[in-house]
Amino acid sequence: MTAAALLTVADLASFYGRAQILHGIGFTCAAGEVVVLLGRNGAGKSTTMKSLIGLVRPAQGRVTFAGADITGAEPHRIARLGLGYVPEERRVFAGLTVAENLDIGRQAPRPGLAPWTPARLYALFPNLAAARDRAAGQMSGGEQQMLAIARTLMGNPRLVLLDEPSEGLSPLIVEQMAEAILALKAEGVGIVLAEQNLHFAERLGDRAVVIEKGAAVWAGSLAALAADDAARQRFLAVGVET
Amino acid sequence: MVGGGQLLLSLLTGLADAAGLFFVASGLTVIFGVTRVVNFAHGSLTMLGAYCGWSLISRLPPTPLGFALGTLATMVLLAVIGAGLEIGLLRRVYRAPELFQLLATFGVVLMTQDIVQWLWGVEDLALRRPPWLRAFVRLGGARFPRFDLIVIALFPLVFLLLWLVFTRTRWGRLVRAATEDREMVAALGVDQRLLFTSVFALGAALAGLGGVLMLPDASANLGMDLTTVTDAFVVVVVGGLGSLPGAAAASLLIGLLQAFGIMLVPRATLALVFVVMAVVLVLRPNGLLGRPPGRGGVLGEVRALVRPAPHVLRWLGLAALILAALAPLLLGPYALAVGTEMLIAMLFAASLHFMMGPGGMVSFGHAAWFGIGAYASAFAVHLLAAPMPVGLLLAPLAAGLIAALFGAFVVRLSGVYLAMLTLAFAQITWAIAFQWVDLTGGDNGILGVWPARLVAGPRGFYWLALTLAVAGTLGLRAVLAAPFGYTLRGGRDSRVRAEAIGLPVTAIQLTAFALSAAAAGLAGGLYAYAKGSVFPTYISLGHSVDALLMVLLGGVATMSGPILGALAYTGLYDVLLSATSLWRLALGAAIIVLVLAAPEGIAGGALKLWQRRRPA
Amino acid sequence: MTRGGPEAPVLAVAGLAKAFGGVAAVAEVSFAVARGEMLALIGPNGAGKSTCFNILSGQIRPDRGAVYLNGESVTGLSSRAIWRRGVGRTFQITATFASMTVRENVQMALISHHRRVWRFLRPARHYFAAEADALLAPVGMQDQAERAAGELAYGDLKRLELAIALANAPRLLLMDEPTAGMAPAERGGLMALTRRLASERAIAVLFTEHDMDVVFGVADRILVLDRGRLIAAGSGAEIRANPEVRAVYLGSGATSGGH
Fold first, then answer.
1. What is the pLDDT of residue A240?
2. All structural domains of chain B with their residue ranges
3. Best to test chain B binding among A51, A104, A116 (most B CBs inside 10 Å)
């Protein structure tokens, strides 16, 4: 636990309808840190993220962000505090142009952070610059993923929740994505990353939290996870060749 | 021959009509685009606009400035009413299934009818028309109302203004983004509640504008809500749901076709609009400028697991059936007549549920099949002098066969578009029944459709209705549990999957459509003999909505839903009708309360309670 | 047209081409898959993999070229007709009947296979229940037969899809990104299961995939598509060493396990 934690999640529990999805998730993330949420599909990584941004209302637990209690707050209020969210399905506005998509994400500059402008984002994601007047729906999966991240950055977030950014992308694009995320980290943005791609996670992550059946079952540095064969076997079943 | 002056006049009339359609439809399409609510109450907002406009303009000086001020004030007032409606009701049902939102807005329609009647009375209210409003301009030897020229000029003006707002302002971009994905907009820091309320206010103000501008040429009257909303729906669907340019294009198309249609085929004017819609939807299943619906379906998202009825329910059903069979020994003629109506309503509701629940094809015009069945029985009596069994056989046969032909077009569509095509067909059928006086007697209907002597008494006919309605309803249930019904449901759950395992989805849907129509036709035939007469009102939009209400009240997801819904709705209706003159207000309020309290319908709510008591 | 014979490949594709609005999505693609073989089709997003799949399963008609199943031309047949000839398919985004149980989902495939769709009276749950359970057992889903498909975990849905795809005793299985959205552990398990079923039942498997661990771990042979063209074909080692494939698709392998 670092004293400078930007985001603190404690004992989080959430339901979809009557089904309990999360049973006590807890972790922290500091500025400029990358925390990776690992776990099977359906383990609760996406629900954790939705609970943090307010799209799912937590039934129990406490979430503090930048010194404010945001447990159960509405999504737009949480977003305005500087918590950004990039969903797994990307969800770009297909009928709007790239430039218009960026405008939707725009928020006032935040003290202490260099404000993101379309120009800076086009430099970070060169593919977007060429396509600024194209409808987002006509772009490839990789370009949509970049746009989804750029759109969130327009809100000048202090911390970004990234839900499986490498999903369904070709290895080459995944590499570009990793470069961009490292650039963000260097800017001092905190990043919570849900990932299935272990190579990608190991390249980017500082610390890992393993989620199983809606509960955090293991936490530590990625180096510790790499060294802990028992944990890797038990939680990720990596190395068990079939 | 038609002269050039006449053509010009028709053109201008058409443009003026198009403008009127556009003002109302643009509001509807904008509201639908963002909130995804099919707002049946939009016509009620237009009606309120006309009445409020009448009250305001009558109190202002009879000058153009006074009229303009009154119009603006009405728009502001309607914006406030719209915002109130959004905050008070719709905001609470955004998460409910779309059909329930429809139900809630229909509750608003009913309530508004009684409120307007209570505030302004039943008389039509015409505006006093000062000279400037009565003035004509001379065009090529013909006279054309000057006011209509103003209306025509407003059409491009309003369109341009809206277009600029939606493309050049941040608010407009936010609205367009929210049209696609409102949750994501919120997650990016935008207060979507404010956005929704303002969109609804804008839509209501546009409806108000449409209402006020109808005043000089017509009057404020109590029937305008449903006629306006039907026309506006047609425009929005023809143009493409949520598309503003589409609404403009469709308004032009329909306004002009109507104006010229009156010249060419005066007898078919009522049907013409709907024929246009049917043609457009067959050629372009998403309307002129609409896009295929994106994330999620537009109508009907029922995916709950369907299980065979628990034993308790079967025994309860059997007990109810025995009780119903014994009823004639206990009840008087009036109660038996009500019971007969309930049984017919049950079959009617079950037939609609068959296609909209497991079939996933929501119909706004199910009364067409009921009406075709009723008229088929009436024709059997009057044209063929056939005995009752023949009439009762012809009713489902006629409805089923016509549905099999028409259904080939229907099953190509989905969601709201499919629903609107069924509405179009119902309106065409209604227009034929209403306008083809030689055959159908028009508004006077066909009288003397009496049942056979054996079942002529209330008891006899009740037993007949019980036998046929219960057999029909149970028959539909059996079919749903069989491979045919499962395939139908599979096509609804996942068309891709169904086709990937070789299931003939389209053929099954078409057959289901015809079966559903046949069952509704049987209900119609029974009703014709029960009442001894047949009228065009059997095919009215109101009657189609009755069927929808029964199914939704009962619950779409359960197989017993439509049965309970039909009984509850007819019962509630009869009780309210005899208890209060403000029955629409009460019924509307009851519907809204039910939507807020039990969004799964009666049977769905009961099932939930039942499951909660038993450990999973 | 028949080019049969005992050695005919299960699937043979010759000169396949399809353009959308003048842009070639698939251009002159030819390949074949043998019994029991697992062939991976990889390439950048938009390279034409989905178009290829949709042509093979009958959702799209090709502009040119031919598709042969066991020597019989099936070019341009409907997806129903192709399914009837023994082609099973799983989807990138799982597609099952959410309002039915796991067993009923498989029963529907069996009802279709045995042509019992147009039955109106006997309840569907009495048709082929035992056969359905026999298909659920090998994919390990028999314990969940009574659960609603709509509430299954993602990995279980994938296994259910596999059971459904086996219902018509297929000779060819088309799997569109079979492990997308699964954790590494589940990926290995699902592909090992597929591998076992394919060799037991002599099924040819053609699959697309972005996880290079899966591709290099499971596929007997790999095809690489780029902008509609087949740019490479061969074993995992050959593909990894191919400079063109590295340039357009694999990259350095640092984030994908390409090494």
1. 37
2. 21-224, 335-613
3. A104
A104 lies in which domain range?
Answer: 32-48+82-236
Chain centroid to Cα B62, Å, comes to: 38
Percent helix / strand / coil, chain A, rounded to 5: 35, 25, 35
Q: Report d(CA B135, CA A202) in Å as an integer.
A: 80
A110 within domain boundaries = yes
ipTM: 0.93
Q: Could you tell me if residue A116 is inside a domain?
A: yes
Reported as type and span, the H/E element at residue C161 is: helix C154-165
> Domain B335-613 has what CATH class?
mainly alpha
Which amino acid belongs to residue B208?
Answer: G
Question: Mean pLDDT over all residues of chain C?
Answer: 88
Q: Which residues contact B306 (CB under 8 A, 6 or more apart)?
A: B358, B489, B557, B558, B559, C99, C100
At B261 the pLDDT is 83
Q: Report yes or no on A4 lying in a domain.
A: no
Per cent of chain B over pLDDT 70 is 94
What pLDDT sits at residue B452? Answer: 86
User: Which parts of chain A register pLDDT below 50?
Assistant: 1-3, 239-242
Q: How far apart are CA C79 and CA C81, in angstroms?
A: 5
Q: Is position A53 within any domain?
A: no
Question: What residues in B contact C83, CB-CB < 8 Å?
Answer: 500-502
Residues in chain B, overall count: 616
Instruction: Please say whether the dihedral angle defined by the alpha carbons of residues C74, C79, C85 and C90, taken in this order, is positive or negative.
Output: positive
Which residue in C154, C217, C257 is closest to A41 by CB distance?
A: C154
Position C153 pLDDT exceeds 60? yes
The CATH code for residues C11-95+170-250 is 3.40.50.300
Q: What is the pLDDT of residue B300?
A: 43
- Alpha carbon distance C55, B522 (integer Å): 45
**Could you tell me if A179 lies within 8 Å of chain B, comparing CB atoms?**
no
Mean pLDDT across C26-48: 89
Q: How far is CA B389 from CA B369, B447, B524, in A?
A: 19, 18, 14
The answer to whether residue B459 neighbours chain A at the CB level (below 8 Å) is: no
Q: Kindly give, in sequence order, each residue whose CB lies less than 8 Å from that of residue B363, ignoring residues fewer than 6 positions away.
A: B352, B355, B356, B418, B419, B422, B423, B544, B548
Q: How far is CA B269 from CA B17, B194, B260, B368, B423, in A?
A: 14, 42, 10, 19, 16
Among C246, C238, C166, CA closest to C202: C166
- pLDDT tens digits, B231-274: 898 899 899 888 899 999 999 999 998 888 877 776 666 677 77
- Contact yes or no for C91 and B478 at CB 8 A: no
Query: What chains are in contact with B, requiring at least 3 Cβ pairs below 8 Å?
Result: A, C
Residue B452 amino acid letter: A
- Are C215 and C236 in contact, with CB atoms under 8 Å apart? yes
Give the CATH number, domain containing residue A150: 3.40.50.300
Quick one: pLDDT at residue B615?
47
**Pairwise pLDDT comparison (C62 vs C22), residue with the higher score:** C62
pLDDT band for B439, please (50, 70, 90 cuts): confident
Supply C211's token pair: 């996880």
Indicate whether C4 pLDDT > 50.
no
Q: Is B185 on the interface with A (CB under 8 A)?
A: yes
Arithmetic mean of pLDDT over chain B: 88
Count residue pairs from A and B with Cβ separation < 8 A: 62
The set of residues, in sequence order, having a beta carbon less than 8 Å from that of B138 and lying 6+ positions away, is none
* Number of domains chain A contains: 1
The mean pLDDT value for B394-402 works out to 97
How many C-beta atoms lie closer than 10 Å to residue B611's C-beta?
A: 11
Q: What are the domain boundaries of chain C?
A: 11-95+170-250, 97-151
Partners of chain A (3+ Cβ pairs below 8 A): B, C
What is the C-alpha separation between A63 and A45, in angstroms, rounded? 16
